Amino acid sequence: MVSHPPRYRRAPGAATASVDGDTVVVSPADLRYHALNRSGAGLWSVLVDPVTVDEIVGHLTARFEVDDGRCRVDVEDALAHFAEIGIVEVV
Q1: What's the pLDDT tens digit per position in 51-86?
Q2: Domain 8-86: which CATH class?
Q3: 8, 87 Cβ separation under 8 angstroms
């Protein structure tokens, strides 16, 4: 049996807005606002369609000056946090 890596995407109903140049996401479950820093906003922009961690890391390392290993750790941590607050889901 072939195991496929999980794919992540924005949770249905997660609303996004730009407020004074910052990216803000509203969790659909509890309607709480979450301000994203520049890296978080970069990650959020990739999550429009389902993507793997490898795809996210490839996109972000091409966009930001960060090494692959550090980026992977940060992406995995951010995805876990985004899932915990209800703005990302695994598909």
Answers
A1: 999 999 999 999 989 999 999 999 999 999 999 999
A2: mainly alpha
A3: no
